[in-house]
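pipeline stage [seq->struct] | target=Lipoprotein | organism=Flagellimonas meridianipacifica | residues=119
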Amino acid sequence: MRNHPQLNLVILLLFLSSCSPKISTSLIQENKYNSLKYDEKITVLELNDKQPDNVEILGHVEIRDTGFSTKCNYNTALDRAKLEARTAGGNAIKITKHKKPDFWSTCHRIDATILKIKK
């Protein structure tokens, strides 16, 4: 049997990427704001929190389970959503949907709106 290093690499990459949650981000306008620094604080507005009036909606992010996801507790899902907000230049996220682990998935799944709170 011949060794195929390229095939082995592809299989390894597929395996490693399948362990992460699926992240879908849609922005209303690409590159409107510069990305924020990695340590910039992101305000999290939970499901029951009222969205302030002085915000601009930049887009939406969905954190989902791929079926093989690991490290997908609520805080990890929030961290991934906050990273997407920083990349879009947003300084807040508003959680719009939160599905807790259940029979079909062991992961927390969230939808959030990416916001820019105007000061």
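stage status: PASS
auto-comment: The helical segments are 5-18, 74-88. The chain has one domain: 5-117.
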